[in-house]
Amino acid sequence: MKKGLLFFSILLAFAGLLAGCGSSSATNAEGVVEKVTIGYFPNINHVPAMVAKAEGYYQEQLGEDIEIEYKTFPDGAAFMTALKTGEIEAGLVGPGPAMNNYTTGTDVNIIAGGSTGGTVILARDGSGIETAEDLAGKTFVTPRVGCTHDVQFETYMKEELGMTSQRIGGEMIHTTGPPAQYQAMFETEKVDVAVAPEPWASVLQQETGAKVIINSTEVSWGTTLPASVLVASGELIESNPDLIQKIVNAHKDATAFIAENPEEAKTITINDIKEETGQELSKEVIDRSWENIGFTYEVDADAVQAFGDSSYDLKFLKEQPDFSDLIDTQFID
Questions:
Q1: Does residue 297 form part of some domain?
Q2: What is the dihedral of CA 283, 262, 58, 50, to 10 degrees?
Q3: What residues contact residue 19 under an 8 Å CB cut-off, 6+ apart?
Q4: Is 318 contained in some domain?
Q5: Packed helices 262-277 and 47-55: angle between N→C axes, nearest 10 degrees
Q6: pTM for the whole thing?
Q7: How many domains would you assign to the chain?
Q8: What's the 3-state SS for 263-328?
Q9: Closest CA to 45 of 328, 332, 296, 311
Q10: Which of 14, 160, 232, 280 is most buried, with most CB under 10 Å away?
C-alpha cells in the first residue's frame, strides 16, 4: 500500500514538473491564440520592445482579445531556453545566442533586425590599461561566453592584435556577469575591462571614470552587425504566419516611433529599465548611449554570416555554420 502511494506521489510530482516546463498557454484547446508573450533584455539595444510595450503596438496589431505579456531576461541563454520551451512566442535577443542555438538544432529564425552598435570596451580606472595592447594578462567581463558582445570583442582582439583569451590558449582572462553589475565589479576591482552593451557602458563612464579603449564603431562589425534581432520559432512561423506578421508590424511601428520621437523613446527607456532592474539611469547616460546605437528592422545577412564564421574560428561553435536559412525576411519585405 505504501509503495503504491509512493509511486502515485512520484507520478503526480513528475506530471507537475512537465506542466511547469510547458508553454505559456498561448493557445486554448481549440488552437485559438489567447496570449502572446514577448521577451527582451533591459538594455538600449532592446528599446523597440520597450517602446512597443509602452505604446501598446502589440495590442493594436493583435487585437483586444489577445493578452500581451512581456518578460525580460538577463542573458541570451535564458531567453533561448524560454523560446524553446514555449514560455515566449517571440522577442529581441542578441544575434549570438540565436546563431549558437540554431547551429545545435534549435528551431529559431531571425524575422527582423532590432538595432545595431552599442558594444563598447572600457578599462577600469586604475587598471593600468591605456590601449587595447595592454590587455595581456588582464581580466575582461562579458554578459555570457560566446554572446554577441564577447564574439565582437574577441574577434577584434585576435584580428587586430593577435591576442586571444585563455579559453583558447591566449593571454586574456575571461569572466561573465550581468551588465547591470559591471559598476560594482569595477569598484571592487574584480575585473579590469568590461565589454559592455549600452547603457551600461555610459554608466561606467559616468559613475567610475572608466576609459573607452575600443568604441562602438571600432569593434568588429560595430556598425553592421545586428546588436539585437527579433526571433520566433520556425514552427510558429509555419503554423501561424498571420500572427508573426502582426508581431513584426508592431516591431516596425516601434522602430518608426523611435526615429520620429527620440526624446519620448528615451523617457520610455529610462522608465522601463528602472522598472525591470531597479536602476534609474540619468538623461545624460541615455543621451550618450543613444549616440552609439542605430535602430532598424533590416538585417545584414552578410554580417551575420561573418559573425558566425568568426564564432567558429574562436571555437565558440564546433562546426562551420551556414546561416542561409536562419534569416526569414518575408515579414519585413
A1: yes
A2: -20
A3: none
A4: no
A5: 100
A6: 0.81
A7: 2
A8: HHHHHHHHHHHHHHHCCCCCHHHHHHHHCCEEECCCCCHHHHHHHHHHHHHCCCCCCCCCCCCCEC
A9: 296
A10: 232
Return the C-alpha cell found at 299: 538585417
**Which residue has cell 540554431?**
102
Residues 283 and 295 in one domain: yes
Closest CA to 49 of 87, 83, 86, 90: 90
**Which CATH number is 238's domain given?**
3.40.190.10
Q: Which domain holds residue 162?
A: 119-214
- pLDDT per position as a tens digit, 45-104: 999 999 999 999 999 999 999 999 999 998 899 999 999 999 999 999 998 899 989 999
Instruction: Report yes or no: 326 and 243 within 8 Å, Cβ to Cβ.
Output: no
Angstrom distance (rounded) from CA 45 to CA 47: 6
Backbone angles phi, psi at 214, to 5 degrees: -140, 115
β-strands 67-72, 109-117 pairing: unpaired
Helix (H) or strand (E) holding 69: strand 67-72
Give the single-character DSSP code of 240: -
